[in-house]
Amino acid sequence: MSPHSRVRLRGHFAPPGDKSIGHRLVLLGAIADGRTRIEGFPPGADCGRTVDLVRSLGVEAEQQDATLEIEGVGLDGLRAPEQDLDAGNSGSTARMACGYLAPQPFESRIIGDESLSQRPIDRVVKPLAAMGASIETSGGRLPLTIHGGRELHGIDYELPIPSAQVKTALLLAGLRATGTTRVRETFPSRDHTEIALCGFGAEPVIEDGVVSLRRVARLSAGHFRVPGDFSSAAFFLTAAAFLPDSDLVVENVGLNPTRAALLDVLLDMGADIQVEPHETHDGEEPIGNIHVRGRELHGAVVRADKLPAMIDEVPILAVAAAFADGTTRVEGASELRVKESDRLAAIVEGLGALGADVATTPDGFVVKGGRQLSPATLRTYGDHRMVMAWAIASLGVDGDCTIDHLDQVKISYPGFWETLDYLAG
Ligand code: S3P
Fold it and tell me: pLDDT tens digit string along 52-66?
């Protein structure tokens, strides 16, 4: 079924810098020797939380437009914070900070907003405790207190769930732990930390799903250009894939295969997508342009092994599935229950409100496309990615939808509404 709407997306745009990469470059730049320059720094509030966090630890960071410069204080140079470290809505900031701060010789306390305070943090606290860290949580959630001053030692840890945030927390702690820290993954999660560590002169070894890192003597500052955020681009490129007569070029977007599995799924659904990679050097984040033309899509099955490389793209995939012909099944997606909202519940509720045939499964959902969708009130639970997914869904519906928390796009994509206006003409 083609969407019942004449809206189409046409033109070129460059998404904002990648949020995931931004967090890592700030944290590592702050403890490197020398001044790190980051171009294309992500404008969203989440990365701002990580910048504020390192500032509270005595690090100077200056931002001009999209360029951030950080005066690294070296591995031993962070100072005790004078107040609580507020991660806001940012799970990455809170979880990575646990590993970052656990080996420091001072105490620190991390707090977050209402949504973040309900999300599990023990997934990082438990393995860090096995490394010798002392972290006191509020029943496995924020606020938490890190009692620093412990000597950490490397561990060999198999991730029970694929999570790049947990892997990153352990590797950040491993930079200062005795011996070797090893993290094993069954399905590869995003590898931005491994790439960034190499950029700062550390030498993680990556072999057969295992990342090993030895304690380092120092990190050296560098110059980085952050690729466009694939997860932000995903909203527009998916919309262009299913809105007939669309013709869209996404410029300078990250193409790291541990992030871009949505492209494989859209191609499976019959999308017309051409990827044009730019030339990059070994050890750099892959980047390129993506050209999408709109056409009718059909359903696809997304299995658990694909999920880690498209974990943040499931809401927008669900929207595409509702406009596609036939059945789409998403498996292995239980982690969506503990994102900025319970995204499985939000997806099923919202698509149901639009009149789609959708049902929850034990670890995901099934959408039978082909129904005519009609205007509805769509609840986002204050989750930035649900706001953007519902904005795209409403483009395919004839009539006005009501969406709440529109300004939450500030978390990852402050320019989302302007870009939407521009591309939809
Ligand atoms: C992220 C990893 C993912 C993702 C989040 C960012 C990261 O979380 O959902 O938006 O930057 O490492 P998990 O590690 O919890 O899967």
Answer: 999 999 999 999 999
